[in-house]
Specification:
The structure is a single chain. The protein is mainly β. It has a domain of about 160 residues: YVTN repeat-like/Quinoprotein amine dehydrogenase (Methylamine Dehydrogenase, Chain H, 7 Propeller). It is built from two helices and 28 strands. The strands form seven sheets. Strands 19, 20, 21, 22 and 23 form a five-stranded antiparallel beta sheet that branches. A four-stranded antiparallel beta sheet has the order 3-2-1-28, with no helix packed on it. The chain has a four-stranded antiparallel beta sheet with strand order 7-8-9-10. The longest helix has 6 residues.
Amino acid sequence: MPGCRLAGVWDDDVAEVTGMTGVLLAVGTRKGLFIGRRRGGAWEFDESPYFNAQAVYSVAIDTRGGTPRLLAGGDSAHWGPSVFHSDDLGRTWTEPARPAVRFPKDTGASLERVWQLHPAAAEPDVVYAGTEPAALYRSRDRGETFDLVRPLWEHPTRSKWVPGGGGEGLHTVITDARDPRAVTVAVSTAGVFRTTDGGESWTPSNTGVSAVFLPDPDPEFGQCVHKIAKDSADPDRMYLQNHWGVYRTDDAGAHWTDIGTGLPSTFGFAAATHPSRGGTAYVFPINADADRVPAGRRCRVFRTADAGGSWEPLTAGLPREDHYGTVLRDALCTDDADPAGVYFGNRNGELFASADDGDSWRQLASHLPDVLCVRAAVVG
């Protein structure tokens, strides 16, 4: 579908939309991308999803330039996976004539999906993509074309990466605003890897993260990391949700410390951080790997305000009855407002939002397809 244009339903023309400050919310689902925008306290959503019948695993809202750019990783059962971009807040979309992300022939691999799209913190035009099979790609033109980062693809440990139940995906990319050469990635069945030389070499960074499902629970690599989120105040601090275990690093991933005490379960998929309050992070605990429903069958986001020293459940406005909506790894996020908006969607097709750092919630949608990813940002 080269050059496809998907019309949205907005009350204003493009100039007014791109010129007005508000919160843009992008919700990738199993059957398309839903876009909403908040003006004041009111939310407006487009009438129909974009990329109808495509699974949208990854979304990025790139606000680094004068005009925000949306990126979406779609997965068509007929056309295959692709990366689309929009420069008018989703009103129209463009797909490159050639696939933006593709494996070179000599790799013998083919792209299954794009798990992550990440605008680099220190380079205005650079966007990273994480894929399945697990690989990292770098774009220098804001996501229109990508190149494979070969040193990670050719890492000497790669032959020992074993796909898990969810496949072998590179699902998290974290960049450093202080140094464009420093990049941290997470792979669902290989763990955390880090480069400090722009991707020329990569080091496993999993010390302290336990792999209770392996014969050796403390391997150099092989952890099943589900998500990493970066602290807003301390650039060397990150939070990690593992297959089992919640951890924190204060030295850019060299060592990890268990911070799961106080949570009803340390199994889960999602992790997010407050955009401006250091030491504040959010997780959504799941009962167990063999019982993938909310911990205690209660819909609860847990927040720490002291870097994992303690946790509090956030429940005001969330369902109080037994609940079975699993929140996936990229389906919990924050925006960059003050106070912060916090958002999550689940596999029940429900979408929830908080406009006050998570203290209270409202349901924005129900009966959506499975929610795969959620992204939000102040635009305008």
